[in-house]
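Annex B. Sample input.
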Amino acid sequence: RAQPRGRPRKAYRRPPGGVAALRAFAATLAAVTVAELGDKTQLLAVAIAARARAPIAFAASTLGFVAANLLMIPLGALLHGTLTGQALRALAGALFLGVGLLSLLGRRGDPLGACSFVKGFCAMFLAELGDKTNLTTLALAASTGAPAEVALGVAAAAAVLMATATALGSSLAARLPADRLRKVVGALFAAVGAAALATAFAG
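Annex B, continued. Sample output.
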């Protein structure tokens, strides 16, 4: 018997649950943590923590990191055809390198100054744009079909990474005199900028 014709049914993909969701979360947590451990992201978080109170530094670094990664897709669509990931990395790298060199060489005050939440958030957000963690987040979300679990994994990894960096930065701020601290923070900013520029031109 001929079957009545109608609109083809769309394939329904069930959201992952239980073990699959846990695997997506664990994979994201492990991948992001390993990718950023000891990377320029942590160096920047150390520099932020050396210039701000620990709670502010931790919150600014963590939220800036998470926002840059979770908002990468709509931001990429907005900037498509205008700025490439390579251009964003080069722009952020030049900014950080310039600030770091001014802090190292300047004799009139400290261009870095005290770091507020907004400064720390913006610095971390800029540093993460176009970074490899963006691609990792996108790949994991696409391959697992579990964007919520991937988002939680990114947030958990950020908390682990930034807690470690904040503790180190706060320790430096407590032990180093102001002038030496300024030079250390300037060197960290310059290192972050140089790394971003190297990645941009290498890619």
